[in-house]
Write a structure and sequence with these properties.
Blueprint: H1 11-22, H2 29-51
């Protein structure tokens, strides 16, 4: 069984980290924050979908 790596951080830390990576590429602050929101939305949405997939047990009861 594969062990999950636990990372303890806050949502604010994640927002700042993504913004720091986006700002040099997109110089317009409004556009940069829009990209940050898209990235965070994608990360959080994909995690929820991954967590709620049905298990693939061979014999389901």
């Amino acid at each position: 069984m594969r062990q999950r790596k636990v990372i303890k951080t806050t949502l604010g830390d994640l927002i700042v980290a993504v913004a720091d990576e986006v700002m040099p590429v997109i110089r317009d602050p409004a556009g940069a924050y829009m990209v940050v929101s898209w990235v965070l939305n994608d990360v959080l949405t994909r995690q929820r979908v991954r967590d709620h997939k049905p298990s693939r047990r061979k014999y389901q009861s």
